[in-house]
Each structure stands twice: as structure tokens, then as C-alpha cells.
């Protein structure tokens, strides 16, 4: 279980970093939608939104699996002490 969760953590962290680099490289001129300028309507804005959504989802999966691994290590250590 830990090995699979570690693979999920590493894979999603690498994917999040790769998507962040891709988004910064391919869409450097797109501004956030919170700006006061009118939003341009183009396929690039939709594509940047999709890539950004995937990036944040991968970052969430990486964070959740890291927290799960941390809790698994904490609880495993305490059960070994109780067995002695």
C-alpha cells in the first residue's frame, strides 16, 4: 500500500510541476481573470484554464497522498511500540 501511494505521490508531483512549467512556457501572456481588463475570448484562454485545472488537481493529489503517507508512518511507528 505504501509503495503504491508513494508512486501516486511522485507521479502527481512530477505531473504538477510539468504542467506548471508548460503553462508558464506556453501561456505567458495570459493574465488572470481577476484583472480589470475585459477577458479575451479565445481557445488559448480555455486551454490555459484546462491546463491550470489539471495542474491544481495534480497538486492536490500529491498533497493528499503526502499527508496520507505521513499519517501511515506515524501510526505504524506507534503500533510497533505498543506491541513491545
List how many beta strands DSSP finds. 0
Low-confidence stretches: none
Distance between the termini: 24 Å
Q: Element order, helices and strands?
A: HH
Assign an overall shape.
Answer: elongated
Q: Per DSSP, what share of the residues sits in E-state strands of 2 or more residues? A: under 5%
Mean pLDDT value? 82
- How many strands, which pairing sense, and closed or not: the largest β-sheet? none
Rg over CA atoms: 19 Å
- Could you say which structural class the secondary elements and strand pairing correspond to? mainly alpha
Give the helices and strands, then pairings:
Blueprint: H1 2-26, H2 43-83
Helix pairs in contact: 1-2
Descriptive overview:
The chain has helices at 2-26, 43-83. The chain is an all-alpha fold. The chain has a domain at 50-84. Helix 1 (2-26) runs antiparallel to helix 2 (43-83).
Provide key terms for this protein:
single chain, 84 residues, mainly alpha, 2 helices, elongated
Quick structural gist:
The chain has 84 residues and is mainly alpha-helical. The protein contains two helices and no strands.
